[in-house]
Write a structure and sequence with these properties.
This protein has 415 residues and is mostly beta strands. Helix content is 8%, strand content 49%. Strands 1, 2, 3, 4, 5, 6, 7, 8 and 9 form a nine-stranded antiparallel sheet that branches. The protein is rod-shaped, with a radius of gyration of 36 Å. The two termini are 38 Å apart.
Amino acid sequence: MKPIKLLSIVFFIAVFSQNLLAGGGHGHGHDDHGDHHEEEPKGPKGGKWLTQDQFGLEVIIFEQGVEPEMRIYLYDDHRLLATKDAEIIVTLGRLGGDKDLIKFIPEQDYWVGDAVIREPHSYDVTVQAKVNGKAYEWHYASYEGRVEISDRLIKKAGIKLEKAESGLITTKETLYGIIAPKQNSHADIAAPFPSIVKHILVSEGDELSPGQAVLTLKNTESQQTYTVNAPGKGVVTQIHAAIGQKVDTQILMEMMDLSSVWVELSAFPEAIEKLTKGQTVDVYDLHQHEKVQGNLIYIAPVMTGGHIARARAVIANADGHWRVGMHIKADVITQQKQVPIRIKRSAIQRFRGMPVVFAKFGNTFEVRMIEMANENQGTDYVEVTGGIKPGTDYVSENSYLIKADILKSGASHDH
């Protein structure tokens, strides 16, 4: 994620500080008229108070010891109305087009709805009641965790979006290690019999192909000149010979095949338990300028004195970037799972103590309380089992700005 300039953030917050936008500051029990100077009247029990003539109706979201449910109290001139002759229906119109239809039955001195009021408690409310043969109807807005943002400010704040959709959940184990040559990758080049070095045809660092001439020597017994060739492909790592030097059968040149190399990794016991041969490994240099993918080929059967086990991966090194002795970081992919809905881990915020993302509908953003299959599973994405519908756009980067603006707007959870 690219950092946002401080000036942009200040501008973003300053603009919203001057505007309580489209319901962003309304809690439950508030009409959506944008008037924050008059406190709305509340019913005798502190709920939403709706009246017509002498008749009163009070709406409360009750969630003490039970899942959130809607309770309605009926009044005649502010006195509780103990009647069973009533039919009550409440419709909750949610952002995105969903509608919750709730029917009520009498219980004690109130009427209780037949459905759990799912989070967020943010909706346009229609209350229809028929009491003692007379019909009533009210409409009001009760929003929380909602804010409206213009296209210009969305772009300026660097807010990025993704869709909640199916995909892979990848779990990774991060290890550190060092690049090492593969076994049998080293070769020594020597004179077959006593000779004098006539020509050195290559330099340290040169790439060699199989059979390439690397030295010209003169046999001191036969006086015949001959060439010594590379036994395979590789890189010249050291030259021990000098022109005119009398040599016997000592090593004159060293070469190494570094077209593929080992990655020697260190793992603690809790990590080693998750590793198996064949797993995919993403290897990065410590500046993360380069990345290459390989596979685990070896896991040590014993631990060292420091209770660390070695694991080994092999990677391609055609361009020679991965130099022997280089320190690296590696992500071992320990699990992959196809899931119906996933969301980006960077999108998750906490709102009223619950994990949430911010869904986008047009220019309106609203909190969505999500349920996760396993919060610790997945490195970049997590599996979501509830709280957001497939295909919904959500804020994947800079979601903290949306949260900050909602909190600044005074989003409440009053009932």
